[in-house]
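FAQ: What does a ligand-bound record look like?

Like this one, built around flavin mononucleotide:
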Amino acid sequence: MIYRALRRALFLVAPERIHTWVFAVLRAATALAVTRRPLGRWLAPRDPVLASTVFGLRFAGPVGLAAGFDKDGRGVRTWGALGFGYAEVGTVTAQAQPGNPKPRMFRLPEDRALFNRMGFNNHGAGELAIQLARHTPEVPIGVNIGKTKVTPAEHAATDYAESTRLLGPLASYLVVNVSSPNTPGLRGLQAVESLRPILAAVRAETTTPVLVKIAPDLSDQEVDEIADLAVELGLAGIVATNTTVSRDGLATPGVDEFGVGGISGPPVARRSAEMLRRLYRRVGDRLVLISVGGIEDADDAWDRITSGASLLQGYTGFVYGGGLWAKRIHDGLARRLHDGGFATLADAVGTAVRD
Ligand SMILES: Cc1cc2nc3c(=O)[nH]c(=O)nc-3n(C[C@H](O)[C@H](O)[C@H](O)COP(=O)(O)O)c2cc1C
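The answer part, i.e. the structure of the complex:
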């Protein structure tokens, strides 16, 4: 309620500017232990039923911050205090780059969605490595890596391997991002013949768990092929999904005028959930599935858990939902787990698909 009024004021400011301001306020509020600790005690998941061990790491709760919000890992101590069970920082690329010209982020208020073509603006893998080495986070921190824009597609594997060499030892897990619509040609790397050498190079460079993040615009057959490849190469899991390039069914007028970019939030929810169920049926016993795309509340979160996700993420839901977003979902999930007689979160994973 209070956030709804605050959001109205925040939404008067250009989206990227307000993102910078809010992120600065969140970092300031959690910079010192005197504020960070009480915030964490209030917001962080504490019900043991929410805890799980996924690829050997302990997560106090399954709701994480999705990639793109904290591209350079400047808030690694912020996310635990804000109630997230973990955070995925990045996308970073091997070389620093400015991203696309502004404006490059827009709101679609009537869809509770966002539209962006940021283009991997980031300070580079080396800078992120320094950030991660400097701070000890309270929650697992995944690192999402992408291809530097100027690196030609045929040298993509070397580019991803370079980021892996720098960041693998510092990350809780690594995500190979081949699904952003905003780096020309990047999504073409999802084709298995292009993806295989990239994933193999990353795997060869690190012992840290490696996942691949895929687009909601893939066909079912492409999803199956990537899932099989991920199993074959011994990946830890799949993150599904990134933003969509589809403009179908939007309520907000004038989206075509924004130009190229990806849409997040509720418009991507149905395909994201559908792909999760498909992946779980195909490889759910062999890969960890992280579900992201249009998760707004505990009902959505419960649907994704029971459809096969071991972990969840959100970006747009957090922007529209405010600082209590992760806590509200964790509290709602805990209630559903207790009501359903589940002893642990892991017991609920995939139950709606298996039956
Ligand atoms: C402004 C913005 C920037 C994003 N940047 C990245 C990014 O750098 N890397 C990435 O893998 N995903 C990025 N994403 C995609 C999100 O991580 C997520 O996959 C997508 O938004 C769907 O989740 P949501 O509906 O909860 O927002 C970005 C999303 C938004 C809205």
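Follow-up question: can I read anything off the structure? Yes, for example: The CA atoms of residues 217 and 246 lie 8 Å apart.
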